[in-house]
Write a structure and sequence with these properties.
β1, α1 (about 15-25) and β2 form a beta-alpha-beta unit. By secondary structure, the chain is α/β, with parallel strands linked by helices. It has one domain: 3-Layer(aba) Sandwich (Rossmann fold). The chain contains 9 helices and 6 strands. It has a 6-stranded parallel sheet, sandwiched between helices. The two termini are about 30 Å apart.
């Protein structure tokens, strides 16, 4: 079975990496459920996909809320069909010294970045088990690989995503379901531009002397969703221009 004709859910699909992944999967013949808290952003991604004569629908809601997850997946099944590709991309970032991070800030970071993907994956896997085919692609972060001063809550939440990826890969390896993660490394997105990082200065000091593009991540996502990656599971596919070499 190939990815063509399947249904993908992409969270955080209204901008940045999620938009690029949604567009790439749609070009591969996948019907994409573009899910975002920002309804205008999700609608714009759908417009861009449909302008290329590909299939997509927009869904608005909190991808970390159990009731919203159940309701939205039911709508996706009714509109497009069962979800066989899941891209857990929605997330937030944060910059704060470790001793200043509050319990509420930690809870919010973990809820959105780790608990949400955990619950959504749990809700989607029954569709994949029924089809004996599935692709789960999690967005982690290169900061989880290297550590990042001033980002303890963020980097640890993304480290949890890497551990979750490995565990699910082992648990569902015999079921036709692959689970992998992409840790983006310094990609030029709206989230990055809104951070306190000097994007151009950091890019000039990197091995490739440039920031990555959302399309670089989307290409990896497209590959991991394909039959060509059918024997790849539990892996961390770094797309970082040489920032992290393992």
């Amino acid at each position: 079975m190939s990815a063509k004709g399947k249904v993908a859910v992409v969270t955080g699909g209204g901008s940045g990496l999620g938009r690029a992944c949604s567009i790439a999967l749609a070009r591969d013949g996948v019907a994409v459920a573009v899910w975002d808290l920002n309804g205008e952003g999700a609608a714009e991604t759908v417009r861009l996909i449909q302008a290329q004569a590909n299939s997509a629908s927009a869904y608005v809601g909190d991808a970390a809320d159990p009731a919203c997850i159940a309701e939205t997946l039911n709508r996706v099944r009714a509109d497009l069909g069962p979800t066989l590709i899941l891209v857990n991309n929605a997330g937030i970032t944060g910059f704060k010294p470790f001793l200043e991070i509050t319990p509420d800030e930690l809870e919010r970071m973990y809820r959105i970045n780790l608990k949400g993907p955990f619950l959504l994956t749990q809700a989607v896997i029954p569709d994949m088990l029924a089809a004996s085919w599935g692709r789960i692609i999690n967005m982690s972060s290169s900061s989880a690989q290297t550590g990042a001063a001033g980002m303890a809550h963020y980097s640890s939440s993304k480290g949890g995503i890497i551990a979750l990826t490995k565990t699910l890969a082992l648990e569902f390896a015999t079921k036709g379901i692959t689970v992998n993660n992409i840790p983006p490394g310094f990609i030029d997105t709206p989230m990055m531009r809104n951070s306190p990082i000097d994007v151009d200065a950091v890019a000039s000091a990197s091995p490739m002397k440039r920031a990555g593009r959302p399309e670089d991540i989307a290409a990896a996502c497209s590959f991991l969703a394909s039959d060509a990656a059918g024997y790849i599971t539990g892996q961390t596919l770094g797309v970082n221009g040489g920032r992290v070499i393992q």
